[in-house]
Design a protein that fits this description.
Strand order of the largest sheet of chain B: 11-10-9-8-25
CATH topology of chain B: Neuraminidase
Oligomer: heterodimer
Largest sheet of chain B: 5 strands, antiparallel
Strand order of the largest sheet of chain A: 2-1-3
Keywords (chain A): Ubl conjugation pathway
Strand content of chain A: 5-15%
Distance between the termini of chain A: 52 Å
CATH class of chain B: Mainly Beta
Radius of gyration of chain B: 21 Å
Number of domains of chain A: 2
Protein name (chain A): SKP1-like protein
Helix content of chain A: 55-70%
Number of helices of chain A: 9
CATH class of the largest domain in chain A: Alpha Beta
Distance between the termini of chain B: 54 Å
Subunit structure (chain A): Part of a SCF (SKP1-cullin-F-box) protein ligase complex.
GO cellular component, one term (chain A): nucleus
Radius of gyration of chain A: 20 Å
CATH superfamily of the largest domain in chain A: Potassium Channel Kv1.1, Chain A
InterPro entries (chain A): SKP1, SKP1-like, SKP1-like_dim_sf, SKP1/BTB/POZ_sf, Skp1_comp_dimer, Skp1_comp_POZ
CATH topology of the largest domain in chain A: Potassium Channel Kv1.1, Chain A
Shape of chain A: elongated
Chain lengths: ~160, ~375
Amino acid sequence: MAAETGTPTTLTLKSNDDELFSVAESAAILSVTIRNMVEDGCAGGVIPLDNVDGKTLASVITYMNGISAIPADEEKKKSYRDKFLSDKDFETLADMVLAANYLNMSCLMDAVSAKIAQVMEKKSVGWVRRKFGIENDYTPEEEAAVKEEHKWTFEGVETDDDN
Amino acid sequence: MADLPPELVEDILRCLPVKTLKRFRAVAKSWRSLIDGDDFAKLHLRHSLTTNSNRNLIIGGIGVYTVALDSLDGAHPIKPPFYYKTVDEISNSCNGVVLVMSEPPILWNPYSADYKVLPDCPVERAAPDGCYCMTGFGFGYDSRNDDYKVVRVTEFRHIINHSSMANVASIYSHRSNSWRGIDPVPYPLTFSRGSWRVHDSGSVLGLIIMGFSLETEMHYPMAMPDGVRVRGFVLTLDVVGDRLALVCTSRYRAVIWVMEEYGVADSWVELVALRCPAIERNDFVTPLVYSKEGDRVLLNCDDKRLVWYDLRTKSVDYVTVKGLPFAFYAEACVESLVSLGGGGRGKIKNSKLEKDERKENIRRKRDDFLSKGFKLVL
């Protein structure tokens, strides 16, 4: 590999909406999916990433560059991740967890999952159904009974602000 | 709207506190069965333990309170869903479950409001003439059998010289929901809150530590720390961060040793060493929990003050928690979905649970410890 001879190698990634991105190989191989491609020698041309759109890929690449610039200091990496995710909304985070899963980037996946959980913590049942696209399959009586079982958990729930 | 595959939803949900998860049972039937499932309860618990999240203090004084460890933002009352007298009757926590030492005893998950009153277990033997009874309990998790177990020992003591005459012991299995008589404990018990101390007149030190395995029901001796000072100190056992701790207190000093690797004699290290004026005279110091970053230990000083002990600088920092009772009992407790309502549920293997070997090993170590090093509390 070129990286071993000291010359930085650049990879070209292609999103599913045909945007092209250049990224240093050293940053891109944070993705196990991409690393495997590089190791198998299939990273010569353009790497198509069929499950990631351009907007999400741009964000993931920002993360790859940011985190790989930090030397081995877990605390600094953690605070970079926190800052990187701090202003992202639910939809962006959901796209990102899908991308991180596809790209096999476990540290990003764990951080995004935890961030989504943090966003959800005080949300209502209705909010979760809308955001996750889940159909309510309870009858009104069943739903009332399920809620009644743990009535105390409905205290302190945020009023929805996304309608 | 996000359409996330179920395994990613599970990864997200395992990060949530118990209260939120119980609320989200109402989202849809599939979410209810996921959240109520034994496998998810284990996944959630393991995630909380490996990331040091969802951790609380259970505080008892007049009433029971919970304090979130990450924020220490105040003591919030919890109302037990059953009758109880005082919180001194609440034992150590294990996987988010505590034992309430009433008669009959109760297993209680304070964060899911789930509880189980144990069946009656009469002491099978009348106290011999001239003796009175003392009863102690131990509680822990048997990882091999995936079972929560309670041990009850009733000791008969001579009315005049208080020496131990005999004892009867029984063990409760949550899986079978029944008590069973076991062999008496082969040494006299020393009752002291939070510990099970054994005096062995035959040993050079005068004191040894004994363990009891919930899995094999065997008693076994444990090594004391090399160079521990015993003379003039009161010794008790505790658990901090899943490690066995030996607390040595004297009038002016408190020294806490921890066994970094359970059962390995060489792994005892001196964790905390405090003397007046960092602590007050005659303070009884109990280690509660490590900070999230692992650089500090929270100590309960004489059931009146909480202090952080910095492991690097060896200095103490007082903690103010709003709403804390004047005198209290504190126990670290993780929030968990561990369910007590059933008993004897079938065990379904989940391959996801085994994907991360390192986490698995941490869990195993912890469970072994809990199954062996359980505490006996009066």
